[in-house]
Model the fold of this input.
Amino acid sequence: MAALIALIDKKGKDATEPAVNMLSALSSVSPEAFGIGSASQVKIERTTDALRKMDLKSPTVIGYRFSGILHSDRPQPILLEDAAIVFDGRIYRPAGPPKLQTLVSKPEEKTEEKIKIFIQKSSGDYAFALAAAGRLFAGRDPVGARPLYYGENARFVALASERKALWRIGIDKAYSFPPGHVAVIDKNGFKHEPAKTLTYSEPKPISMQAAAEKLEALLRNSTAQRVSALKEAAIAFSGGLDSSIIASLARESKLNVQLIHVSLEDQKETEHAKKVAEILKLPIHTRLLKQEDVEEVLPKVLWLIEEADPVKTSIGIPIYWAAEQAAEIGFKVMLAGQGADELFGGYRRYVDDYSLLGEEEVRKRMVRDIEGICETNLERDFKICNFHDVELRLPFATFEIAKFALDLPVKLKIDPRQDSPRKLVLRKTGENMGLPQCVVQKPKKAMQYTTGIDKAIRRLAKRHGLALRDFLDRIFQKESERTV
Done:
């Protein structure tokens, strides 16, 4: 796994030391190498301490924390002609490694235009930064699967895969880099330009059967891309619709697929997950934890997700345990079903909005949620998995599937009746794929409730005599003071 940093010293001073400080703030269990570079020079070492001895004599520096996933992965930065680049992620179409050299312009061409074309023509999960003379260029995939943040203060303009790297150099306000955009960065700040983004459009008429067939084809392609070149993969598995679809599709790719189910003890969903795993004929690892395990892991998860949000925390804890379990049994890649709820109407609030405000208003809300999925869900989960050096791959979170979901009529996702199932088109897709009725008809219930984590955190807050948000804020602040 990888994480990147990039910065410009506004005063024109050598930025080696602050760049290394940013790299040392990035979270990882066992990084293999660190690298920094300028437009003309690159240095890679085993530790950040070894990098401190390098003097780039450049106010523009990029950096990379490396832990290999595939045999083809290599430490970075990569030195190009009159530039250097750090690239975090995967390109699935066109197949093969990204041709990073094509991002560097000839004098008559604009680098930002070439980066726009790269984003428009490539399909994958990625973020990158390119250092040229006196400037940085950066980009992010159109869904925002890989985390990337930016900000500035009186001395620095900077980017990083984690907010804490920006905090380390005194940039307190870190913003999520807009997905599908290119940024040109100099000492005066950031200039963002859209390259390939999700936008609101009128729904396109389509039957339920046709939509389900199209969605199945998109998911088959997306899953096949994300398991290509792999011999094995773990799947974060609840036994619900989303993870069962991913498990079924991954199984068809003939690689070694193993399911990982985590929960607190004595939760009903565990037996259901085991039952579905047996039906799918896939091995399942179950990890059942206790209240005290929640208390122990809470500071770590809050620091990794970089905010004291109750919902993100209660979802982040089982993701943390699943990634940890995947790493312990030797898996480098974990698939998960994140994104399906935003794309296909999985949340109860959509039904409430539908019945109270009508179809058009609920559709607008769904569009906003899809556009903001990187901040609400994906960044959290990637940062947690990165810590364990496990690469998270999300077959639902693609531009093609998101665009398809945006174009669907609301009635193919939800019914305004309060007791009706949600994610209708996805259920039809699962039915067409031959998934059992215990999966296809299973009512949607959020992970924080099925695992028992939400109640466990609330009990901890009550024990300390604090409201939930205040309790999490206090832990997060203590962890911040200890680490930064």
